[in-house]
Design a protein that fits this description.
alpha/beta; Rossmann fold; seven-stranded mixed beta sheet; globular
């Protein structure tokens, strides 16, 4: 079996060849108008870096003064999307993501998300868009044993979900591209922390309406750019997740867009969707920005023994503080959920 260090060494030449051509290839030209409402009233919200993977680059989020939409500007190009997603959810990052997706906190979140559909009946067929490795579907099936769960995603994770039986059927590719062949197939479409990754959120909502049967339901959960935690923690706030999050949509904007698409809003919630990790993820982002890097193929060379030693000792020293922050996040969660510190919201909409 190939070791991680061998995998990193094998990937390094390709990454270094890409980076030698410069970072400009990874970005489109900057916009002068809001992609949501076309207003020119823009201001810079923040500049940050790729904290989770430490891939090179600086990323800007702008806010529209007219509608409040927050978006990446300049946006990643197709080459940039490929570069920054690679080895995050799949490849070198697959094992890490699998551990996170099966953690007790994640399982609890999956159950909460699945319960959001209970007041609206028991669906026959459910499509989870942006399903990853299908862990949500596997957990939701416990609550809906007669429902057939299908998954859709860009990466190979959705194929892993099918092989492991977490989804009954896997679709790999673009939701907007596949929507036509899935028209009217589903009673429920869920998009849990998916819409903020997409190039054109309104087109994704159109695709959801296409694949839903009349009377079917769309469940959308996204980070809340109006969260007070976003202001307090600044560029260290975990849900900014640059450069992967291209659009962060205020609740009122999403509600209006759904209504325009022919949906009726039947429920909104800012309490249950909160993910209690703000303090911990902010601290981890700070650590990642100051500590020597681990062995990663987008870094020009393998870290020295001294650098690896400093990183290991620093993480060991920081561990007690991180444990305290984890405890604080969980302890404060009941209060945080009931205030504007909540970091996410959910909308349930019926296709009329």
């Amino acid at each position: 079996m190939t070791s991680r260090s061998e995998q990193v060494a094998a990937h390094r030449p390709h990454y270094q060849d890409e980076l030698a051509r410069g970072l400009a290839q990874f970005f489109e030209p900057p916009r002068s108008t809001c992609p949501w409402c076309t207003s020119p009233r823009l201001r810079e919200r923040l500049r940050t870096t790729n904290h989770p993977q430490r891939k090179p680059g600086s990323f800007v989020l702008d806010t529209c003064h007219n509608c409040g939409h927050v978006f990446q500007n300049p946006r990643l190009s197709p080459e940039g999307l490929d570069f920054y997603y690679r080895d995050c959810y799949d490849g070198l990052g697959e094992a890490t993501m699998a551990r996170m997706a099966s953690s007790p906190l994640a399982v609890k979140l999956y159950r909460t998300r699945a319960r959001a559909m209970l007041p609206f009946g028991r669906p026959g067929r459910w499509l989870d868009v942006g399903t990853g490795h299908g862990h949500f579907c596997a957990e939701a099936r416990r609550l809906y044993p007669s429902t057939e769960f299908h998954g859709l995603d860009w990466g190979e994770g959705v194929e892993i979900a099918a092989r492991t039986g977490r989804v009954a059927r896997a679709y790999r590719g673009s939701f907007t591209g596949l929507a036509g062949q899935l028209a009217g197939h589903y009673d429920v479409v869920s998009m849990y922390h998916y819409l903020e990754h997409t190039l054109a959120p309104r087109r994704e909502l159109t695709a959801a309406r296409t694949v839903l049967r009349p009377g079917g339901h769309l469940l959308v959960e996204v980070p809340d750019p109006q969260s007070a935690a976003a202001r307090l923690l600044g560029r260290w706030w975990g849900p900014w997740l640059q450069p992967q999050h291209l659009h962060l949509i205020p609740l009122d904007n999403l509600r209006s867009a759904l209504t325009e698409q022919g949906f009726t809003i039947v429920a909104t919630d800012r309490k249950e969707p909160h993910i209690p990790t703000d303090l911990t993820s902010a601290a981890v982002n700070v650590l990642n920005s100051v500590l020597p890097g681990e062995d990663l193929p987008w870094l020009p060379k393998k870290p020295s023994p001294l650098g690896r030693g400093i990183r290991a000792l620093s993480l060991l020293a920081a561990a007690p503080a991180l444990l305290v922050l984890i405890a604080l996040d969980l302890l404060l969660a009941p209060l945080t959920r009931r205030t504007r510190l909540s970091n996410a919201y959910r909308v349930v909409a019926r296709r009329d």
